[in-house]
Amino acid sequence: MAIIGYISRTEHFSAAHRLHSPHLSDAENLETFGKCNHPGGHGHNYVLEIILRGPIDEKNGMVANIADLKRWIKDSVLDYVDHRNLDRDIAFFATRPSTTENLAAFVWMRLCQVMPEGMLNKVIVWETPKNKVIFTGEGVTAKDIEECTV
Fold first, then answer.
1. Average pLDDT, the chain
2. Domain that holds residue 89
3. What is the model's pTM?
């Protein structure tokens, strides 16, 4: 049986958004999201942590090459979210509010399309130093991944 290891990569990005659900009235959105529902939106300096889990390769001693992980994150996520307006620039958020929960799910779905199956363990997104979301892919379907567009 192989020895299992975990590796992690942390990145930062800045993005704007407006917490607003197309499934709620304007009054319900204001009541639910308060000042974060401001029509002009607001921004965050997000911290993103990606955690992989897998067998430690006997030959190279790695779960995955960090260079590969850096490239997967940059090409699939950062190139699309950094210095962007999530609501206006990413089709995924046209039908769902750009909460940190949905952002973490978006990151998961983008990464699992380019990484070896079963390797992605957790996506952690810090919206602020006090608020973070941890997503492990629970409930994600093939249809969800198909709809995960930018």
1. 96
2. 4-146
3. 0.95
Strand order in the sheet with 84-85: 84-85, 4-17, 42-55, 120-128, 131-135
pLDDT, tens digit, 9 for 90 and up, residues 87-138? 999 999 999 999 999 999 999 999 999 999 999 999 999 999 999 999 999 9
Q: Is-catalytic flag, 101?
A: no
Quick check: is 83 catalytic? Answer: yes
- 10 Å CB burial of residue 69 (0-12, 13-18, 19+) is buried
CATH number at residue 135: 3.30.479.10
Number of domains in the chain: 1
Indicate if the pLDDT at residue 147 is higher than 90.
Answer: no
Residues 17, 44, 127, 148: which is the catalytic one? 127
Which is catalytic among the residues 11, 36, 49, 101? 36
- Per annotation, catalytic residue among 12, 38, 42, 83: 83
- Is 36 one of the annotated active-site residues of the chain? yes
Measured between alpha carbons, how far is 81 from 103 in angstroms, rounded to an integer? 10
Residues forming a β-bridge with 85 = 16
